[in-house]
Amino acid sequence: xxxxxxILCLIVLVGACNSPKNESRTQNEEVxxxxxxxxxxxxxxxxxxxxxxxxGFHKYxxxxxxxxxxxxxxxxQFCRAYTDSLSKFNLSALTINNKTDYYLIKNVLESxxxxxxxxxxxxxxxxxxxxxxxxxxxLNSSQLTLEERLKNxxxxxxKIPAYYxxxxxxxxxxxxxxxxxxxxxITGSISVFDTDILKAIKQSSLSATEKEDMEQKCKTAIGSIxxxxxxxxxxxxxxxxxxxxxxxxxxxxxxxxxxxxxxxxEIYEKAxxxxxxxxxxMYALSTQLWPLYFKQExxxxxxxxxxxxxxxxxxxxxxxRDSFQTEIEKQIxxxxxxVKNKDLLYIDPSKPLVVRKEPAYMQGVAGASISSPGPYxxxxxxxxxxxxLASYSAAEAESYLREYNNYILQIxxxxxAIPGHYTQLVYSNKAPSLIKAILGNGAMIEGWAVYTEKMxxxxxxxxNAPEMWLMYYKWHLRSVCNTILxxxxxxxxxxxxxxxxxxxxxxxxQEAEAKGKYKRASLTQVQLCSxxxxxTEIYTLREALKNKEGDKFELKKFHEKFLGFxxxxxxxxxxAMLK
Length: 579
Ligand code: ZN
Ligand code: ZN
Known about the structure:
Layout: H1 4-16, H2 21-47, H3 49-54, H4 69-86, H5 96-119, H6 121-124, H7 132-140, H8 146-157, H9 160-170, H10 176-203, H11 208-233, H12 246-258, H13 264-294, H14 303-315, H15 324-341, E1 353-357, E2 368-371, E3 382-386, H16 394-403, H17 406-416, H18 421-430, H19 434-439, H20 442-458, H21 466-491, H22 496-506, H23 511-523, H24 530-549, H25 555-564, H26 570-578
Parallel strand pairs: 1-3
Antiparallel strand pairs: 2-3
The site of one zinc ion has 3 residues, from loops.
């Protein structure tokens, strides 16, 4: 903090010399806040070097923060000091872009304090001590030479014994689920040290002694990691903490992570209501389609059974395992054309999306995902990673392909690519805010992708075919049930059987998918609510604007203006757009 003050004063003085009084005050506040942000980000990276590396800022790659009491205190001090500096700004004198930045900074400081003082997952979730990803990111970063990267790693790796010593001291009464996850993942992380880094050392032009020294450091590091895994395996934990975090924590975490105008329980109620409506609409579509697909066959007597049979039938229409990626590649330009023809929003042709096979280090994570260039690498490519089915048995591949059948595959491409995540990303990169690139709101990002699925269908994508709508509803039900599951497991003591009933019988998921979702919901909290919450907020905003503007409402304008705010929480965008 001491370093910042003189620079800020100087800027304020310079700014004060020209322009009339009121205007100059506003301008000063803007200038002062811009300078504040710059210094805040610099200080943030110095304080949280691991976070810096993960967004592609490499100045602190060689630093490994030891998770001990002193470090926690320093982090608390950091957040208090910056909360204090932030409170000195006159919010009403800031532009909307800076206002939302202000809120994002305020929120990250408040969150960090809450996590460090109340939530304390560093004591009950040992999987936070997995260093595999951090080292692998540094090793694979494209901005430094191999030798520079290895020198950073050499400095960082020697702190690993102290790191795991502090980690063991922190662990107290962890949950059974997070302990099992930690044992799995941290064991898996060893390959980064005994394979990836060693291979890179051999390929490098480091001297023989440097190489030997690094190999020795790797060995020591692996010893510490193995000892930590053994410590977890042998932990006497007769009364483990339950994974569900309860209403008080869940509500607070929802408030901090999602930053919504709604509370957790309001969103939960909305999700229950939406599930009911979706079942009604899906049943109506299924009865309409029944004679076409089942001829004389009698319909099952119950709503859910009828929908399930219709969905299973439609899921048989799918691509072959060899054409999964090419089919996705083929659909991207078709989606672009549709968006253009219907005048839904502008798509910048200078930033093409590269479809690629999922790289090895991502394998087994998801069917498809978007990899975007970080805020410090704006010219990097945006990739659409498509999972390979190569390791699947014939039965597994068939089940997967039915899940991502011809209908769902199109919706997936809308969500991930156009006009979903990829399009949002292009707009957000144009919004001039490093803060939003770093602290971007997850519910806004996911909410936008979920919103575009419905918006495309509303505008005639899929020719309004009842099949397309039915399958869309099934997909949408997933976001809705993610929220119900998350809330119910953490607050309502939902049992495993009840969770399976929700996901399999009421959301028509395959057993494997349902089990995976249950696991994810027991290991995380709140994140699964982000999809439906963001969607609900965006949709509500659009309808409110339609009401307000009547004939003057233009969908394209709404989309472009909305995305122009960058990845800010929807509640602040709503405030600005409804004003
Ligand atoms: Zn098949
Ligand atoms: Zn998404």
